[in-house]
Design brief:
With 354 residues, the protein is an alpha/beta fold. The protein is 41% helix and 16% strand. The chain has helices at 19-26, 30-33, 52-61, 89-99, 116-130, 140-153, 173-190, 223-230, 281-295, 305-314, 323-353; strands at residues 11-16, 39-41, 67-70, 105-107, 133-137, 160-168, 195-201, 217-221, 238-241, 261-265, 269-274. Strand 3, helix 4 (89-99) and strand 4 form a beta-alpha-beta unit. The chain is globular, with a radius of gyration of 20 Å. This is Beta family protein.
């Protein structure tokens, strides 16, 4: 059993078991990795018929540190046999048995199927088996009352962390602020001591609207920080995001046309350099990396893995000449930046309180 003080952690990234995302996570240094408990959603892994391989890859990425484990709510992202894990029979026995052998896993209570009693009994059993557990509110109307009922049945509500997941927010930030606030208030009205993390993503599916006039660069505001601050910041909930990944997975769709692009994560923005029309993709990535080095000289002396990959590319040795390789760099840079920023901001707040 695992006992975790969730308030000790100031950033909760949500990732999926896709190669690029897990590589970005895996290449975090161990000190930063120890400062997070990511929420990892299982998904199909190449040449695997179940989720066992995906789980193995997640554990490798986390170096056997603790992480939340969840199932996808979209059947398209299940494997041939994994749908049975969400079966509510015997209070979600299949899910409980799948997570039981793994001491570093904090299971997320499944709420997309089953009735209220089955979900409550599942939560109670997971608390007894693991000591710590998670809840995820995706469908605010459906999930919120179920989570409240399950929280109320726990031996200790501090054994749980509730993720209020707004998913993709860029299309309507004010509406999502209102919806997240309402969900938090509903939970805390019934179970005041509930620990909550707010999750969202604002990374777009396409960068076109963010191009500057040259069409070679641009800036994408990170609206997830705005959402978190608007619902009350750290006084109300712990910050979380999707690790610079869009909410919808497009893995089944071929990439028809793309230009060498490198995204660079800052505290409140992603900036990018792209080189359209370059015949040689490796050369395009080299030029994009050189431009980032010119804009952000600190990359030269950084020990962050993503910065190392930019330096290598600038010297003509890109670690990959396709988008997937550079998604892992973006994820790594984003995680490192948000970890540092979250803990630095908390220290500054403590100093201000003094």
């Amino acid at each position: 059993m695992m006992s975790v003080n969730f308030e000790d952690y100031l950033y909760y990234p949500a990732l999926r078991t896709r190669g690029a995302e897990l590589r970005g996570l895996a290449m975090l240094d161990e000190a930063r990795k120890a400062q997070i408990i990511p929420l990892i959603t299982l998904g199909k892994w190449p040449k695997s018929d179940d989720f066992a391989r995906s789980l193995e890859k997640a554990q490798e990425a986390m170096s056997n540190n603790a992480f939340f484990l969840d199932l996808p709510d979209d059947p398209r992202h299940h494997s041939a046999t994994s749908l049975s894990l969400a079966d509510p029979s015997s209070n979600f026995a299949a899910w409980r048995e799948f997570t039981a052998p793994h001491e570093n896993i904090i299971p997320v209570v499944q709420t997309s199927q089953g009735n209220r009693r089955q979900i409550v009994q599942q939560a109670m059993a997971l608390e007894q088996a693991h000591g710590s557990l998670g809840f995820r509110i995706r469908d605010f109307q459906r999930d919120t009352p179920l989570v409240i009922a399950a929280l109320s049945a726990l031996d200790n509500v501090h054994n749980a962390l509730v993720f209020v997941d707004a998913q993709y927010i860029r299309s309507a930030v004010p509406a999502y602020i209102a919806a997240v606030t309402a969900a938090i208030n509903a939970v805390r009205t019934e179970v005041p001591e509930t620990l909550i993390s707010v999750l969202s993503t604002s990374f777009p599916s396409a960068r076109t609207q963010f191009f500057d006039p040259s069409r070679e660069r641009g800036t994408i505001p990170i609206l997830d920080r705005e959402l978190h601050e608007s619902v009350g910041g750290n006084n109300v909930a712990i910050y979380g995001d999707y690790g610079s990944i869009h909410a919808v997975i497009y893995d089944d769709q071929p990439i028809m046309k793309w230009s060498p692009t490198i995204d660079y994560a800052l505290e409140y923005d992603w900036v990018f350099e792209r080189r359209p029309g370059v015949q040689n993709n490796s050369l395009g990535y080299q030029h994009a990396a050189q431009a980032l080095l010119n804009r952000f000289p600190h990359i030269e002396n950084s020990e962050v893995w993503g910065d190392e990959k930019i330096r290598e590319a600038a010297q003509g040795n890109p670690h990959g000449s396709a988008p997937q390789s550079w998604i892992s760099v973006r994820v790594n840079l984003h995680l490192a930046k948000q970890i540092d920023f979250s803990y630095q901001s908390a220290e500054e707040e403590d100093d201000f309180d003094l």
